[in-house]
Amino acid sequence: MPEAQRALSPVGSASLAARAPAREFLAFRLGADLYAVELTHVREIVSPPPLTGVPRSRPEVIGICSVRGLLVTVFDVRRVLRLEPELPGRLSRILLANAASGEVVGLFVDEVRQVIRLAPDEIELAAPNFGVELSRHVVGIGRPEGGFVVLLDLATMVDT
Amino acid sequence: MTAGGDRAREEFHSEAQELVETFSRNLLTLDAALRERREDPGLVNETFRAVHTLKSLAGLFGARRMAQLAHHLEDVLDALRLGKLPLTPEVLDLLFRAAELFAAALVAEREQTGDPLPAIGALLREFEQARAGPVAAASGVERYDLDPAMLAVLTEYEEHRLRSSVERGLSLFRVRVDFDLFTIDKALEDIKAQAKAFGEVLTYLPTGSAPSPDRIELDLLLASGEPLQVLVAALGGPHVTIEAIPLRAGGAAAPRTPLPPVVASLPSELPPAARLPADVAIDGGVDPAALRAVSQTVRVDIRRLDALMNVVGELAIVKNALARMAERVRAEGGRQLSSELHSIQRSFDRRLGELQGGILEVRMVPLGQVFDRLARAVRQLGREMGKDIRLVITGADTEIDKLIVEELSDPLMHVVRNAIDHGIESLAERSRLGKPTAGTIALNAFQKGNHVLIEVEDDGGGIDEVALGARAVSLGHLTESDLASLGRAERLNLVFLPGLSTRAEANDYSGRGVGMDVVKTNIARLGGVIDLHSEAEIGTKLTITLPVTLAIVSALLVRVEGRVYALPLTSVAEALQLDEGEVRSIDGREVITLRGQTLALCRLGRVFALPPVAGAREVTRRYVVVATLGARRLGLAVDELLGQQDIVIKPLGRSLGGVRGFAGATELGDQHVALVLDPGALIDEMLAAPLEAARERRALHA
Amino acid sequence: MPRILIVEDSFSMRTFVRAALEGAPVTPGEEVELVEASGGFEALRLLPRGPYDLVVTDINMPDINGLELIQFIRSNEHHRTTPILLISTQASERDRARGLSLGADGYLAKPFTADDLRERVSAALASRRGGAPPG
Prior knowledge:
The complex is a heterotrimer of chains A (about 160), B (about 700) and C (about 140). With about 160 residues, chain A is mainly β. In chain A, about 15% of the residues lie in helices and about 40% in strands. Chain A is built from four helices and eleven strands; from the N terminus they run αβββββαββββαββα. In chain C, strands 2-1-3-4-5 form a five-stranded parallel β-sheet, sandwiched between helices. In chain C, helix 1 (about 10-25) crosses helix 5 (about 115-130) and helix 3 (about 65-75) packs parallel to helix 4. Chain C is an alpha/beta fold. Chain C has five helices and five strands; from the N terminus they run βαβαβαβαβα. The interface between B and C is large, with 36 and 40 residues.
């Protein structure tokens, strides 16, 4: 692992970074790996309601569903990240998140884990052994107490 | 002393803001009218009421400076509307300055700065001077010998206008016209237009007697400053007689039938918010009756409307569930219980229908909202680009769903901006062509069936289709030979391709401009279509067709490959069984013959590439639903007709923006979502323009 | 099938009236035919296409207002006995009283529900037939 750059904040000094507030992420599982998105974007977690496929939509879109009357487009995070497909399981959930446009979108994941708090010195930029495709969506790597979480950028994942 | 907490303050500011904007907007219109030597008494009246409301509002919230300014302004406007003070450019200038001061005072209130604004005092002194001018003598309606039968059928508002006209010194005339019943619409519009040039038509009264059974006679009550001879010369004709309404004999005697006093109807209860706090002391005091007028309308946050719509949609699902429950109870032997449940469900259904109707009404707003914003933008854009622009707006009363209006602002703004920037020629060019120096942009809106049409027309140079075609080819959208095979209409439609309607280089004002492709997409997302007509050196006209509402519509549910789709009933002409043996193929396209006419067929299962559902029964008999939009028709081949249902169409999110063929989606029950088909888009797609057909053929042969 | 002429310049109000009268039969088992006019002028044009079993009209309309329309209807031998129901969305007490004195058979003041409208229309149609109200 090459020397990781400390902190994501452009203003660089270590002491400044250390004093910056911790960021909160919601972690979820895809296969055997842990991923996460910024908690502020996440509105709600629901059990997957019936999904209706939308003909001729992007391959990353599984379909649309209704959550208490709100129409939500649901993305398969696996397809967005070009991971191997897997059948949904008992623990599958949909994360309802606020996209930049104000639209509420859904992210289909295998299991929702917990909220993790990462101080700036626990976040590193992505390692180069991820493909070019992925680096667009990856904000960084989180290392909470020795763990390993891929931090994702919601905006680029949903971006048309 | 302020009323209520932060939220109340917020609402005060937003309401006051809107009133100040209304005031400014009206001044612009009065300004334009003044330049054309016209008067607009209705508008002066409306402005007076707006300022009056502002005064009450400001008083209630302790905004002393605003209240004081509004109070004096109200006096001036009252004098104006009663004709006691003439509207001169000088007075109008003072009013414009007052508008600016209002805006400043509102900011000061918001930021809670306590300094008095000296400019207000100065302005008020100037108003005083203006008012000290000569006062027109008031004269009563009673002086005129008006037929009491005519008076009896005037509404209160019409009576007020009558009073107003007389007090301004106008004379009254009766213009009796008889019309042919079949051409009455046009004839009425004509006489209306003619009469308006000479004064105000207060009312139109059918006389009940007619020269023949297919004619009808109307009396127009006209208030005019012109003498009778002038009116007769201008409006007279074989079917027109004009008479001056005489003054009562003996001068200003007591009238035979006294006019009832004009009393505004007050609601019986004083809403709590309108109670005046005791220690708000404003010059002259605040009139409690006026405070009641403040709360006659409610401003609605569009998000609350959406939330209500959602609830209504969910209640519709509950209603359906109740019906199913009643059926199940009956199936299990409980006849009595089932019949009671059915009765409850029917009652629920009725109430739900009322609720739907009520919300539907609230959702409808006049297009004038958007048009006003455009008017302000036009004024500014014209100045920025150094072009004199005259904006003509008609049909601002046309109503449309609030959701749509909110989304219309941007596309219309782009269209208008393009018209001013690209369409209207420079001053030099226009005079060279002998056109009036001011470029005209006309905005017109009207309703046609279940659609609202908005036309934007300019008298600019039109679209250069040769340059357009060349640009399209250079951008790689089509080849030279494709271009050659296009008709004129298709060539003009090239403007909707990406990159076509922007400048090659950015200029200072609008950058590259916003492409018409974006406008078309935005309109499409609202379920609308956009058409283009253009004539070189004459101008360009864009017509936007929109559905009246996005809310609850009746739909036909169909099943295709196991999936349920909904089709708005307004676009369904008919449905019939499909005899596969009757299907022919023309140019690679499937068609059937329906009552002697060819109908193109669209197999939704194939177009949507729907994989068959595992284990489903083979479909032996299909159906064709004939979808129409305007004059075009398309036969949609489906597996099953499921029946009719009222649905709430919700738009698909922006993330699905590129998907064609759907107007949105709806929830059917048990959280199941069905897509709603967009017949217009499907018709466009399947009855593709030769351009796309040519592309397809190229792709096939490639 | 009873024919009802609706005269109303507000589109949303017309939509509401149409929805109320079309949705559920006003008299059980019987449908009504609705003819709509967006104002007094159009009503004048549509009246000769009668007879109508009921006229439902607003008062405040531009050009020919509801009061003038009532007077016209009552002075016309073909429509003299047609029931007229006033629906007033903004009219004052005075205007409503005038309407009644000019010959309207009743009025519905806002706010009224679709049920209210249906009841009044039902009653008006029944009285027209001269029989007992539908039961």
